[in-house]
Amino acid sequence: MLIKLMKYEFKANSRLIISLFGAMIAMSIVNRLLDLLNRAADIEFLFITNNFSHSLSLMLIIATWVTLLFITIQRFNKSVLQKEGYLTHTLPVSTEKIILSRLFVASIWYIIGGIVAILSVVILTNSFNFSDIKPFLNGLFVFENLRTLIELIVCFVLAVFCALLLLYACLSLGMLANSHRALLSFGAFWAISTMMQLLFSITLALMSTVLFRATNWALFPDGIHVALLIMICFLSIFCVIFFLITRNMLRYKLNLR
How many CB atoms lie within 10 A of CB 120? Predict the structure, then answer.
C-alpha cells in the first residue's frame, strides 16, 4: 500500500515539477549557446543578452526550489491535515505509511532537483571533461575516498529527511490551534530550528575541543569520519523525534479543517 500511496503522490506533483526541471536544463543550454555565440561574434548586444539570460537562469533555479518547498507544504497540509485528510485517514493504511509516502516522494523530488541543478551548472559552465572520468573513478574507489563519499551521501539524505520531517512536525503541531494554525506552525518551526542550531553549535564546540585540538590533521587522520558519524547520529535522532511528533499528532490530536 505504501507503493500505491507514493505513486499517487508522484502523479499529483509530477507534471509541474518535471516542467520546472526541464526548464532549468533548457535555460542552461540556451545560456551555453549564447556564451559560445558571444565569444565567436563579440557583439555588445549579445553580451547584454547573455547576462540577462544568466540572471533568468539563476531566478529559475531559485523559483524551482521555492516551488518545491511550497508543494511539499501544500501537499501534506491539504492531503493530511485539511478536508482531503478525511479520505486519507479512512484508507486501510497505517499513520506511519501515510507519513512515509509523503516523506519518500518529497525526498526523491529534492534529490532529483539537486542533481538537475548540478547538471544545469555543468552545462552552463562547461566544467565537465570526459578525460577526467577515469582518474576520478580510480580515485573514488580508493577505500578512504569511497568511505567518505558514502558517509557524505548518508548525511545528505538524512539532512533531507530531517528537514522534511521538521516541516511535517510543525504543520502537525498547528492542529493544536483552532485558528491561526499557520502562525503556530511557523512559531514551532522557528523554535525547533533555533534549538537545533544551538545543539548543533554545542556539538561542534565539543568536537573541536575533544577531537580537533591538534592543529596537524595528520595527528588525527580519522577526524573527518568521526565528524560525519556524529552528524549522522545527530540527524538520525532528530529524524526519529520529528517522525514521532508527527505520528502522535495525527493519531491522537487529529483536528481536520
Answer: 24
Residue 9 and residue 102 in contact, taking contact as beta carbons nearer than 8 Å: yes
C-alpha cell at 30: 540556451
CA–CA gap between residue 118 and residue 124 (Å, rounded): 10
Q: Where are the alpha helices (DSSP H) in the chain?
A: 2-41, 44-76, 85-88, 95-125, 133-140, 143-173, 181-210, 223-252
Q: What is the dihedral of CA 232, 154, 139, 211, to 10 degrees?
A: 0
pLDDT digits (tens, 9 = 90+) for 89-115: 888 888 899 999 999 999 999 999 888
**Threshold 0.85, pTM exceeds:** no
Alpha-carbon span 243 to 168, nearest angstrom: 8
- For residue 130, pLDDT over 70 is answered with no
